[in-house]
Design goal:
A 5-stranded antiparallel sheet has the order 1-2-25-24-23, with no helix packed on it. Strands 3-4-5-6 form a 4-stranded antiparallel sheet, with no helix packed on it. The chain is mainly β.
């Protein structure tokens, strides 16, 4: 076990133990491919997106393999998100689509045309993550082929988009992930600009967090604790106002270490962290149990 102590004396400590060798592949071996995406539902199932087929694996919270989804549909899953009805949203970068799976593993909605990139400034060209806000609208980071955030209505219509290439407010070098909070503020992970930008639901720039190095993904809990994974092998934990509570991580291949590769993060209902890695020698999800 390792202890993470909050820097703010009024905050709780953050103590975790790494669950060594969590999750094996369908044949009892390693997962067999880099892991860009991980998410969990309310039943304790953990969804793992991989860059090699089968592309979406399902585990229980103890790491036992359960099932494979979307074997013939997904090309290159990026980041995942699970809604309040346990539907799983997958940003499929290579296929330029967002897929929504119901809890039984059936695709119930597809946004975008499989294999066809969107026109300039239009959805989608290698999207990186999708998430619904409190309004029910879908927000999509269109990251590798565009420099855009799209807001799509529940009826599937494009409400509006914002963003362009650059380093200024409202511009992106790579919108790699996003989160929509309870106030429908959009947190856009601008990886190559080493920041997270925050916008209102209309795309108006609010502010940005810059005490970061190549942020990859974030998760905001119901108590407004913000978890961020950064490429130089670390996890940062903030309160909603941007006060750093804890920061940890070191380079390496041992359990609990990262080889410049933490790519995705999810916090389950028990407070455990799941972190997917994309280094070629680390085809794994690491679980950190809160103690």
């Amino acid at each position: 076990m390792f202890s993470l102590t909050a820097r703010n004396a009024m905050s709780a400590t953050y103590d975790y133990e790494v669950v060594a060798h969590w999750g094996l592949g369908p044949r009892g071996r390693s997962m067999g491919g880099v892991v860009p995406g991980v998410a969990a539902d309310s039943e304790g199932r953990v969804f793992v997106g991989r860059r090699h087929p089968p592309a979406l694996l399902v585990y229980d919270r103890d790491g036992a393999y359960i099932d494979t989804w979307g074997a013939d549909l997904l090309g290159n899953p990026h980041l995942l998100w699970v809604d309040g009805e346990d539907q799983v949203y997958v940003a499929d970068t290579d296929n330029h689509t967002i897929r929504c799976f119901n809890p039984q593993g059936e695709v119930v909605h597809t946004w975008g045309t499989p294999g066809v990139p969107g026109a300039p400034d239009q959805p989608f060209n290698q999207p990186t993550k999708a998430m619904r806000g409190p309004s029910g609208d879908l927000y999509v980071a269109d990251g590798y082929g565009q420099y855009r955030i799209h807001r799509i209505s529940d009826a599937g219509e494009l409400v509006h988009s914002w963003g362009s290439a650059g380093t200024g407010p409202g511009q992106f070098a790579l919108p790699h992930s996003l989160w929509v909070d309870c106030d429908e503020r959009v947190w856009a992970v601008d990886r190559e600009n080493n920041r997270i930008q925050r916008f209102d639901s209309e795309g108006r720039y609010l502010d940005e967090w810059t005490d970061l190095v190549m942020p990859m993904d974030l998760f905001i809990t119901s108590d407004n604790t913000v978890y961020i994974v950064e490429a130089p092998s670390r996890v940062s934990i903030f309160d909603i106002e941007g006060q750093l509570l804890a920061r940890w991580g070191e380079d390496g291949s041992a359990p609990g270490q990262f080889a410049d590769s933490p790519h995705s993060i999810w916090v389950d209902e028990e407070g455990s962290l799941y972190i997917g890695e994309v280094a070629t020698l680390h085809d794994r999800v690491q679980k950190f149990r809160r103690v």
